[in-house]
Write a structure and sequence with these properties.
alpha/beta; 7-stranded parallel β-sheet; two-stranded parallel ribbon; 11 helices; 13 strands; 40% helix; binds nicotinamide-adenine-dinucleotide; binds UDP-4-deoxy-4-formamido-beta-L-arabinopyranose; carbohydrate metabolism; isomerase; UDP-glucose 4-epimerase activity
Amino acid sequence: MKKTIILTGATGYIGSHTWCALLEAGYDVIGLDNFCNSSMEVIGRISAITQSTLNFIEGDVRDASLLDSIFQQHKIDAAIHFAALKAVGESVEKPLTYYDTNLNGLLNLCSVMARHSVKTLVFSSSATVYGDPDSVPIKEDAPLRTTSPYGQTKLMGEQILRDLEHSDRDWKIGYLRYFNPVGAHKSGLIGENPRGVPNNLMPYVAQVAVGKLEKLRIYGGDYPTPDGTGVRDYIHVMDLAEGHVSAVSHLLDDGASGNGSFTVNLGAGHGISVLEVIHAYEKACGRPIPYEIVPRRSGDVAAYYADPSLASEILDWRATRGLDVICSDSWRWQNMNPDGI
Ligand code: NAD
Ligand code: WQD
């Protein structure tokens, strides 16, 4: 019997790629999104990639009656909860908006799930919960601390869910702490689709490559890293999507009573500097990426990358796509959709 998964934030960057991976793995998917940070066009693109008719509902994850009616009409086995606001800087300016969407959305989803006795959930957490780590690579038992309201919503989201599973042992929750998701589907049909000028490195570099932005500003060339620029753990979004398939299938444990909750890092497991990203991107697009080095961005840390061995142990999952694939897939997406979708 096919299992049915509801995805909140289904047309967003990670949600859209996970939707493709779930269909490919044989799951039925119900997508929910209010398009506050994505485009309706994504639906047609996923449909083209997967050659499927999609089951999509436009709406807000904070809308209890809408969620109730979805859970009433469909036999849902599990939820993957992507829907959230994610811009760190904006969260400092609009904390209430972030706490409302990210926490009320989670509370509402869990309440409706409990009412319908659906107690299997995968939660989008973030490496931001480790703040400025004491050491790298980062393991899941590293101290948790975070500075932005966005980071707080992820930390509080985890805490709410841990309290929930202590109150009712039927809950099975996968806490996935993503490092830096980048790249795009190999078809070039879906990818990261930022509104306005990107805050993050990879979409910024992509827009410089395609000629929409003049040059990259590298935030800091004097970090204690091999080339002085910031080091991060970039993970291909399809590797991340496949991590969700492994997570949900582990929790549902096809057939048996299912496995218990777990918390894992989803990262590639090695650090890459800003200059390394630029050079790999230049190779992928065949053009120079102009840049200048400017002062550090406030709040940035020098280096962080995951120890992803627990995910490999529990989920039998590891990232397989390297920086060259990341850059060539990102470039294909950017070049085919210079103004996004
Ligand atoms: P995204 O903005 O591309 O996708 C989120 C989707 O949720 C969007 O399509 C948006 O329209 C939708 N959404 C937001 N609020 C909603 C609401 N109230 N009701 C219904 N839909 C709503 O972001 P993403 O990069 O795909 O991130 C997905 C999840 O992963 C988020 O929870 C994010 O915090 C987390 N995460 C992202 C990153 C990253 O760097 N991209 C890193 C770590 C964790
Ligand atoms: C990467 C590197 C920058 C832009 C953020 C969030 C984090 C998580 C993922 C959700 C750093 C440098 C960047 C630019 C640059 N999101 N850079 N010029 O800051 O590691 O993580 O996204 O949970 O919470 O904080 O990602 O892509 O912004 O930066 O030099 O124009 O690129 O300094 O070293 P970050 P990023």
